[in-house]
Amino acid sequence: MERDINGRFIQGLHYSPHTEFKKGEHWQKPKAFWDYEYLYNQYITLEKSAQEIAEEYDCHRNNIIYWLDKLGIPKRTTSESRQVKHWGLSGEQNGMYGKTGNENPNWRGGITPERQALYSSREWSTAVKKVWKRDKATCQRCNAHRASGKDFHIHHIVSFEVELLRSEPSNLVLLCKECHNFVHSRENTEKEFINEIPTGGH
Questions:
Q1: For 181-197, what is the mean pLDDT?
Q2: Residues near 107 by Cβ (< 8 Å), separated by ≥ 6?
Q3: What's this model's pTM, rounded to 2 decimal places?
Q4: Handedness of CA 185, 188, 193, 194 (dihedral sign)
Q5: Where do the structural domains in the chain lie, given as residue ranges?
Q6: What is the DSSP string of the chain?
């Protein structure tokens, strides 16, 4: 018997080993917006609204609001939302429509609390907006424009380790996902968009 006389499951026995969830499994398939870097990129960098993101995943806006709060991504105020200029076409005509899975920004084992604290700050948000405007929403390596539907990253030319330069726009550059991956790969033998840590840097 798998239950006791009171109808409770007996510890150590399994009701249906073939259908029960294993350790670490979830009853829902993982969604792209559960990922901090992906949701930050969509909401902060690309300035999409929670409603726009929700429509791409056929879910309720409150789902996106929940994950913004859970991941510590600062939500826009009403006045800030009104200032956001939305770009491109809507729905399936938008190049970013429905991009999930391997289309997410590159995930390298998670973001440290130190990085997450920076990426959640207003200081970083301000720097990101300046870089997008300065670089004209264009990858500075391959010249791909945001309207191409590619994912874009903000890259630190001098390493994130140098605290004084973390939010300095002159140390930041806009790259598409593919070029950002290249810059951090062994193929980048010429060290494009990579500067050594200055002597005495922190």
A1: 89
A2: 35, 37
A3: 0.49
A4: positive
A5: 26-84, 111-202
A6: --B-TTSPBPTT--S-TTTSPPTT--SSPPPGGGSHHHHHIIIIIS---HHHHHHHTTS-HHHHHHHHHHTTPPPPPHHHHHH----S--GGGSTTTT--GGGSPP-SS---HHHHHHHTSHHHHHHHHHHHHHTTTB-TTT--BGGG---EEEEESB-TT-GGGTT-GGGEEEEEHHHHHHHTSTT-TT-TT-BPPPTT--
Tokens of 37: 């870097």
d(C-alpha 41, C-alpha 183), whole Å: 19
For residue range 74-124, list pLDDT tens digits in order: 887 766 666 654 444 444 544 444 444 334 343 444 456 788 788 878 899
